[in-house]
Write a structure and sequence with these properties.
The protein has 113 residues and is of the alpha+beta class. It is built from two helices and five strands; from the N terminus they run αβββαββ.
């Protein structure tokens, strides 16, 4: 973890967030600039900079992230589909270099996406 990683600070509780889920390995919280009525970010608490940096030992963690997405959407009232997005690297549009998955849903129209 770098001291300048905002998602590490959020995961550590040093920056407040509106949490949607938390367990020993993952944190899900509402995006502060949502693109849609429901927009959460799912992050591993472990600092992994990008999807390109994952290793074979991260496979269970990635699976847990993907399994959490539909459960959260159901809990948050999204019933007609949702998007999952992982931006990777500069050309992939990644802005925060801590692996995170956007889970976006709710009635359209959306601000973005």
């Amino acid at each position: 973890m770098g001291d300048d990683c905002i998602f590490c600070k959020i995961a550590a509780g040093r920056i407040p967030s509106k949490k949607a889920h938390e367990d020993a390995e993952l944190l899900a919280f509402h995006d502060i600039h949502p693109w849609a009525p429901v927009h959460v970010l799912i992050i591993p608490k472990q600092h992994i900079a990008t999807l390109s940096d994952v290793q074979p030992e991260h496979e269970p963690l990635l699976g847990r992230m993907l399994m959490l997405a539909p459960r959260l959407m159901r809990e948050l009232g999204v019933t007609n589909g949702f998007r999952t997005v992982i931006n990777t690297g500069n050309d992939g549009g990644q802005e925060v270099y801590h692996l995170h998955m956007h889970v976006i849903g709710g009635p359209r129209p959306w601000l973005k996406g």
